[in-house]
What we know:
This protein is α/β, with parallel strands linked by helices. 46% of the residues lie in helices and 17% in strands. The longest helix has 30 residues, at 186-215.
Amino acid sequence: xxxxxxxxxxxxxxxxxxxxxxxxxxxxxxxxxxxxxxxxxxxxxxxxxxxxxxxxxxxxxxxxxxxxxxxxxxxxxxxxxxxxxxxxxxxxxxxxxxxxxxxxxxxxxxxxxxxxxxxxxxxxxxxxxxxxxxxxxxxxxxxxxxxxxxxxxxxxxxxxxxxxxxxxxxxxxxxxxxxxxxxxxxxxxxxxxxxxxxxxxxxxxxxxxxxxxxxxxxxxxxxxxxxxxxxxxxxxxxxxxxxxxxxxxxxxxxxxxxxxxxxxxxxxxxxxxxxxxxxxxxxxxxxxxxxxxxxxxxxxxxxxxxxxxxxxxxxxxxxxxxxxxxxxxxxxxxxxxxxxxxxxxxxxxxxxxxxxxxxxxxxxxxxxxxxxxxxxxxxxxxxxxxxxxxxxxxxxxxxxxxxxxxxxxxxxxxxxxxxxxxxxxxxxxxxxxxxxxxxxxxxxxxxxx
Length: 449
Ligand SMILES: Nc1nc2c(ncn2[C@@H]2O[C@H](COP(=O)(O)OP(=O)(O)O)[C@@H](O)[C@H]2O)c(=O)[nH]1
Ligand SMILES: [Mg+2]
């Protein structure tokens, strides 16, 4: 039998309430030892007002909820204690629970039990974790699609399409005399696999959107010194985060900030102006800037409209390689020049000091990165690294099956790969799993979840 576990489910601090969750077959008995009323007589889904006692001493005034197995979060008996906020009452009650037979839950242990008792699949579990760490509306919407099984449905639909193929091949092999069974030919497999492959490919392709929604978009602001990079960062953020001066080399380290565009998190990185320098600190900053360019989804290449396109600008251009670039002609209040070398890029003219121009810049970013499309989509994307890598493996398997069909390999040999495809899809939802994998997944959850 599983131990009875307990943990604080809320963030302990100055708040109105805290919730302690106790789950396991002994949960009602353990809390009952500390409560001034008889919990064993309570029906499931009831809340009782009373006091947590340490012998004769009242520890806190609480509400105790009783949920009886099997229709509960974990599938086990659960008792939840709503204590007063702050840290003293909740900590004292935890101490009493631990002294009376409960064990402190490991991170994610409640939800692991929920999974093991068949209440949710792995996609749902991982989506709950995503919901907890989400910081934008888009991320919330996407995790909700996972929690409400819409993603799982897509995977299960694929499995449902594969299973009859496997079953029919098996019948063909085991009962060749059974004439009613459809004889699965390579043609039939080809047709069915084409649907499955298209659906898997769709999920893999749209996972880029999923990753953008989950992790946000990285935009680096680059350019030679003094073109107005830090001013643009500050205007986009709406606060004076980076120091702005007319002294070259002012920004030496990367200054970060984030905004939300169309409900999507956008991480902005103001970099040190790239130029030749003998100054050690500045040159380390420049090296960091160049690295940052590599993991950016978009580069704002800032040009000072009032100055010439010089060797220094060319040096910056060289560092951009094949990145997606938006040329930002800044300081158009002073002058207006277009640079021939930059004609192949998208561009916009702004002055960092004019708010309506900054709004135009935001619109342009939304347009270039298709953020409108993502924001108006249905948010059913895979964004979890484990799930993405398994889906990619599935796609590879379908390519192998294509190849086998082309090479006229016997159906019973092709079946081996179809089986593997079915198995791998099962790993995504967790209908097939290894114990170590579960530990790895659930240890990422916060305590009390
Ligand atoms: N006239 C004008 N000056 C600007 C504009 N943007 C920035 N500056 C000035 O250009 C100088 C360098 O700005 P800064 O943001 O520190 O440039 P960075 O070195 O690229 O980060 C400062 O004196 C800013 O006030 C602009 O749009 N118009
Ligand atoms: Mg700067």
